[in-house]
């Protein structure tokens, strides 16, 4: 439950993405669930099986609609650190050349940009300020641009982002696009934020269908949102009211927590198991941010 608290003043050191967030890469790259010796050996075994198929050169052609997120490049770098021979991640063509074997490697994976963006939206929605450490501002450039457009004060340094709200927030329009465009995984959090700004905002979801399922829960809280196909029309309101809310998926659940934190009174969010899939130690970090959460 989230009794209201309208400011969030702290320095936060979060954002080491879980190994489970690494992507499946072609038919011979196995998803890594963790970095245990047992799973790593199994990963080696699967890759080494490709030798029996005499796999020496694969070219994967990537069209303009395929993901080019920073996580793809990071996965390429990780596999190369183990002895793989992969090039081109983030471009139109990825070239994977088979190797005889992979070896152990220690590797630091990039910060979770969606987790970082979510906390920025929470701070903005509660009209607070926050400094996020161990983040890559370049990976969040489209989100930071929109936060500036709605009147948030945003500053960046090499490994940190600072956000402060000290004036009225205003409306903006958003279209979700493949990276480096505005990420679909930040759409629901930003829609929630836009319910609390002055004016009318329009959000167009170009990546996934049926990604406005969380909106009915926001309507319970007094939000003014109309859905027309892939477009959400958001008329800002002065405040949201507390409510009992049900999260049914990951990012929509994060949006509901954002709304609950900004609302007057006590709200309860169920379905937290969906949200915790993408936000490690969520409650602990929210307690740091907002101090009072049951």
Which SSEs are present, and which pair or pack?
Layout: E1 11-12, H1 37-48, E2 58-61, H2 70-81, E3 85-87, E4 93-97, H3 113-125, E5 129-133, H4 141-149, E6 153-156, E7 160-164, E8 173-175, H5 187-194, E9 200-204, H6 215-220, E10 224-228, E11 231-235, E12 244-246, H7 250-262, E13 268-270, H8 272-275, H9 282-290
Parallel strand pairs: 1-5, 8-9, 12-13
Antiparallel strand pairs: 2-4, 3-4, 5-7, 6-7, 9-11, 10-11
Helix pairs in contact: 3-5, 3-7, 5-7
Main attributes of the structure:
294 residues; alpha/beta; 4-stranded mixed β-sheet; disordered N terminus
Word description of this protein:
- It contains nine helices and 13 strands.
- With about 290 residues, the protein is an alpha/beta fold.
- About 35% of the residues are buried.
